[in-house]
Specification:
Blueprint lengths: L3 E3 L8 H10 L5 E7 H6 L2 H5 L8 E6 L3 H14 L3 E6 L4 H5 L10 H14 L3 E10 L5 H13 L4 E9 L6 H4 L7 H10 L4 E5 L5 H7 L5 E4 L1 H5 L7 H4 L10 H17 L5 H4 L12 H8 L6 H11 L1
Parallel strand pairs: 1-8, 2-3, 3-4, 4-5, 5-6, 6-7, 7-8
Length: 314
């Protein structure tokens, strides 16, 4: 299990975002946005699944609860070249609930177990589960432990646990990311009670230094929105988490490398703004941060603007 990862985030962690993040850290495990099984089976697989080889190690997160569909998608993920496939058992949105997957699956661990078993039989790819510590009326550690035990018995040995409950009624998806209280101790306890499992912790972690503290109690740490809005913090990961004695790339070098990527993608018809939207936070907390955001928020964004920025900063 990789010690550090960037969370799957809908509408954010697309292939362009992931390539950008890879320029900042060579070791961080990257995750796709959640993709539903039905979208993969019935939709444009190239658009949904393609990635650049530089993105490895890379996880495909699936949304679904039909074991046969999950199995088919696990096989597809393996053939597509993903390193791991993950079952979403943590998203609390209405769209996910109506599809009978996401956080509501915590109430039916037997369904998750069936999916894990089917996926493992259909492919050789690693299968993991990303969950909450509970949902709605699940109030006890025993219920969380029972969920992990049932899913483990089906063959899952990697769990990523967001250390908050999810309230499917009464809270919006946004509120579910902040309102339920954090309970890191339960995640630590899962690792103690299931020492043979690989356990990752997620939720409310705001820096790489905080991540190193959690790594004293669990195997891996996942950062979400802070890694998106303050992406340059990822430049600390290879040194502080993986102990690689490397100089962090400068913001300007990262931008220069990403410009080369933008050129190639734009030649294939990808709009520049669909890529530059992911780098708005590159200069977070720097004196020039506002000017950089303004540059990328204009009516027209062209490569020449980025080269002008490099001239300005250089």
């Amino acid at each position: 299990m990789h010690k550090f990862s960037v969370a799957p985030m809908m509408d954010w962690t697309d292939r362009h975002c992931r390539y950008f993040h890879r320029l900042l850290s060579k070791e961080t495990q990257l995750w796709s946005e959640m993709v539903t099984t039905k979208a993969i089976l019935n939709g444009d697989k190239n658009r949904l699944l393609d990635f650049d080889a530089a993105e490895h190690p890379l996880v495909l997160q699936l949304g679904g609860s039909e074991s046969d569909e999950m199995a088919q998608c696990a096989k597809i993920a393996q053939n597509w070249g993903y390193d791991e496939v993950n079952i979403n058992v943590g998203c609390p949105s209405d769209r996910v609930q109506s599809g009978s997957f996401g956080a509501c699956l915590m109430q039916t661990p037997e369904v998750v177990a069936q999916c894990v078993d089917a996926m493992r039989q259909a492919s050789d790819i690693s299968v993991s589960v990303k969950s909450r510590i509970g949902v709605d009326d699940m109030e006890s550690y025993k219920e969380l432990s029972n969920f992990v035990m049932q899913v483990e018995n089906a063959g899952c040995d990697v769990f990523v646990i967001h250390a908050r409950k999810a309230w499917l009624k009464g809270l919006s998806p946004k509120e579910n990311r902040t309102v339920p209280s954090l309970n890191y101790e339960w995640v630590y306890r899962i690792k103690k009670d299931f020492p043979h499992l690989a356990i990752a912790i997620n939720g409310g972690i705001m820096s790489v230094d905080e991540a190193t503290v959690h790594l004293q109690s669990v195997d891996s740490v996942m950062l979400g929105r802070v890694a998106y809005h303050q992406p340059y913090l990822l430049s600390e990961v290879d040194n502080k988490i993986y102990h690689k004695i490397l100089d962090a790339p400068s913001r300007e070098q990262v931008l220069l490398d990403f410009i080369e990527y933008i050129k190639k993608q734009n030649d294939q018809g990808v709009p520049i703004r669909s890529m530059t939207r992911h780098i708005l936070g590159l200069y977070h907390a720097q004196p020039s941060a506002k000017k950089f955001r303004q540059l990328l928020s204009g009516k027209v964004v062209e490569l020449k603007h980025l080269y002008q920025w490099l001239d300005f900063t250089g």
